[in-house]
Amino acid sequence: MFESVSALLAEHDDLQQQLSDPELHSDPARSKRVNRRYAELSRIVAAHAAWTQGVEDLEAARELAKDDESFAEEIPALEESLAEAEEKLRRLLIPRDPDDARDVIMEIKAGEGGAESMLFAADLLRMYLHYAESKGWKTELLERTESDLGGYKDVQIAVKGKSTDPAEGVWAHLKYEGGVHRVQRVPATESQGRIHTSAAGVLVFPEVDEPEEVEINPNDLKIDVFRSSGPGGQSVNTTDSAVRITHLPTGIVVSMQNEKSQIQNRAAAMRVLASRLLILQREAEAAQKKELAGTIAASWGDQMRSYVLASYQMVKDLRTEYEVNNPSAVFDGDLDGFIAAGIRWRKRKTE
Fold this sequence. Notes:
alpha+beta, Alpha-Beta Plaits
């Protein structure tokens, strides 16, 4: 039983050797990749050791029971414990998303609803920032386009985890948050108390660890520079520091103007472009394996969550049917129930 574990145990030993090599830590990207895989395999190694010990304990109890009946009383408990260890190991050996331990780049874009949609985008940003804070994750603002009323037309953030364990990874938690979020409420822009419906889109990308993970040919890039602008389109910089990169083969366009330096904006744009190309790469791999493309990212057309702050209070995930009656807590980052329901939903869809 569990014959495949031997190869994983050997790989774990090899990674342990690599981690003891000082040269590894001079390459942060490679070190991160090795640590991530080591953490994943360490859980399997521990589960396998527990299962092996359980097998030995049960065999010993059965052998001793032949001469001493008191040992027979221990057998049922040992059998139950072994069954639990076996099931845990079996679950860990199920192939999981190789990107689960990755950090992510998240983009929130205002959609239908005008100024109210931009305010809603700001509320979603606050929600995810609070959720990240509750997990001990770090966030980095990459780009934002503000509206006149304090909302966002478009905002992008990087979310970085604190663990190399795939089960605790940022992508593992946030990958099913992509889609259209809709809100019904009386907006701050409404003077007559009428309920409005608006929407904002969320996209989530796994962040690329190493440049060589995604091949980007410089000849495939069209790079434009321009002066950054603020709410209403007014210029906020006197130099051409903003950068727009177009990836010609795919048509992906990434613009950055958050930093005052053209070099910094270009580096941030390349980070986002690499993450988007990684998604396309993963979707192509999934299609080849005839898996659901939705396991990677939801499209802009997928309405996935409804926030109602009108005559009654409710937040409901339209895919999983999970709902709560406390929108304030959700906007304060209480997303664990939705995240867990989304993971269960996708698991059922792929079984």
